[in-house]
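Notebook, bench 3.
Goal today: get a predicted structure for Soluble lytic murein transglycosylase-like protein from Stella humosa so we can plan the truncation constructs. The sequence was checked against the plasmid map this morning, with no discrepancies at the termini. Length recorded as 541 residues. Pasting the sequence as submitted so the record is complete.
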Amino acid sequence: MRDGSFAEAEKAASSIANEIVMGHLQAERLLHRDYRSSYRELFDWMKLYADLPSARTIHTLTMKRRGRNPAPPGVEAPVVDGMLDLFDSSALPEAGDAKPAVGMLDRPREERGRMSAVRQRVRQLLGKGDFEGAGKVLAAGEKRGLAEADRILVLGDIARFAFFAGRDERAVELVPLDGEGPVVARWFAGLSAWRLGRHEIARQHFEAVARAPDLSGWMTAAAAFWASRTHRALGAGDAMQAALRQAADHPTTFYGQLASRQLGNLAAYGEGTDRPEIEVDRLIGIPAMRRAIALVEVGEPALAIDELVALARAAPTAVADSVVAFARTAGLRRAVPRITAAIREAEGALFDDAMYPMPRWAPEGGFTVDRALMFAIIKQESNFRMHLVSPAGALGLMQIMPKTAAFIGPDSLRGRDLHDPGVNLAVGQRYIRHLLEQDPIRGNIIFTVAAYNGGIGRVTRWLSEIRHNDDPLLFMEAIPTAETRQFVERVVSAMWIYQRRLGDRTASLDAVAAGQWPVYGSGEDAQRPSIASTEGARVED
């Protein structure tokens, strides 16, 4: 199929029982660079295979070729046949994360157009800093019958823009305190109220977010922890403890670890990992699992892995545990970190060696930077895929740009293969040390990780523009680039877990839990030699 032999591939597929992998084979054809798929072909595929991993890509292509034709069916999560309820595994919320009760494409054309026009106009005004005008457009839209779900989306846009622009008064004024309200808007209104020192208003917003259903463990822990900060400021000790316990229920998240540290019950690595698993043979009733098994049998392990990752992301933990077990027995061990992370990072509930692997790689010349920090960056950048190439051209485990390697690498590394683990880690480690030594970073771990993702120029600008009141957590939440904001949270959280797995000190966790800036060298250094420091760049299968 990948070489363009479409007829031969489909003829071969017809011999497979129940044509169970036909959807994958047809998707390969529809998306192939040498095949021009029609709207009707794409539409018909979506009617049959909307729960396949490639459905989102095909849906986007169908919409591009739609013209005046009907909208295609929406993308569906993998069906888990009612064994357990599904849960939402979204990450931290952005303005578009609120889920309308009715899908946009299922609405009448007039209603879709009204929503698009209102939101587009609001965003234009927000981009110009006209928050009053944006509020007027929203009010006018409400008078013309803007749906409640759409009002929530637009309100979230305004509150988010206001917070990042430092217009805290506007965010606080805009978002009502009554009822549960829109989650995204209340989150940013809470942060704005905190920055203004209005702790009672912030408390009400954060508690509303912490009570909201269908949020990821990362978001629930964040809201509960910030609620605990407001309780502390208000002198409500019992309420503070209760909020910390809620955040600590998600122990592998950033805020869950902070809460556990403040409560004094930070678990050792590996504690609390026992969970009941559903036997693999019971998963045969799940269509995605049947497809994955068939794909392995016909020699398509990459497509099987895509199915398993999508299933793990949609399924409850007990189901996902059995998906991981199947991957191991099916000879897909290298995919286990992807499959495991798909659900467990979203839930933030378990420690697992598959989530936090420690391959026997080392930089050429050995480790000179804390291994926990190195592993955490690798986990977030590439999830330990040494041959990964990003759309921007970043390469390998630490996603090094060739121009960065040319700038930072010594002569002995220039021109070397960045897919080689020893070379990639050596360049990445040298770049981290370079960042740590720069002004205005000066060893600050949060600034260093932010600069690794967003660049030192941006970090310098953010430090001059963000009003963070010398509060590390407020600075982190006020980083205006969503990718960098999440990168910092995920990397620092993973670093703390790796430090616990390695038996190292968690000085930066202690510092942030105490409201202080985390400084590299206060326990985050490479005092202990790597298990692979004398073995070159080997990988343990």
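The radius of gyration is 25 Å. Residues 20 and 291 are 6 Å apart (CA to CA).
Flagging this for group meeting.
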